[in-house]
Write a structure and sequence with these properties.
Layout (H helix, E strand, L loop, with lengths): L9 H12 L4 H7 L4 H9 L1 H36 L5 H17 L25 H16 L1
Helix pairs in contact: 1-4, 5-6
Length: 146
């Protein structure tokens, strides 16, 4: 007869879930369940607990990425609209955000912007120098004033 496979307790599962869904920080969750730091450290060292915890983290990231992807078109549209703001500082910050997104990848989706088809996926696009960014802002400002 096979030995019974080890499973996480209801308390361990509740702690993992509360780490991601509640209003409490890590220490708050531990206090809520009356778990000492030492016991929690042992749980984290346990392969089964650690694996379940890592899966929950991965789920949270996937959920966040899907949410960001869902609203990325709206956010991008709003950011472009802000470049036309009557408030100069708001328009300037929107332009800086757009320039920053183009120079280091798409921050809304986490994808990297590739300069050409010959680029390797591991190649980073060159960052914009402060002088280049300043020139772009000046051009955008001139276009707004025209």
């Amino acid at each position: 007869m096979m030995a019974k496979e080890k499973q996480l307790s209801k308390r361990q599962l509740a702690v993992i879930e509360d780490m991601f869904t509640g209003e409490l920080d890590e220490q708050g969750v531990l206090d809520k369940y009356k778990i000492s730091r030492g016991l929690y450290s042992r749980w984290l060292a346990d392969e089964l607990f650690a694996e379940r915890y890592e899966k929950r983290i991965a789920w949270a990231y996937r959920h966040s990425a899907a949410l960001i992807a869902r609203y990325a078109p709206l956010a991008a549209t709003r950011l472009v609209e802000l470049t036309e703001s009557e408030k100069g500082e708001t328009a300037r910050k929107a332009c800086v955000d757009i320039i920053s997104m183009g120079s280091s990848g798409d921050r809304l989706t986490g994808t990297k912007v590739m300069p050409d088809n010959n680029a390797s996926p591991n190649d980073e696009p060159p960052p914009l120098s402060p002088q280049t960014a300043g020139k772009l802002l000046a051009v955008l400002a001139e276009e707004k004033n025209d």
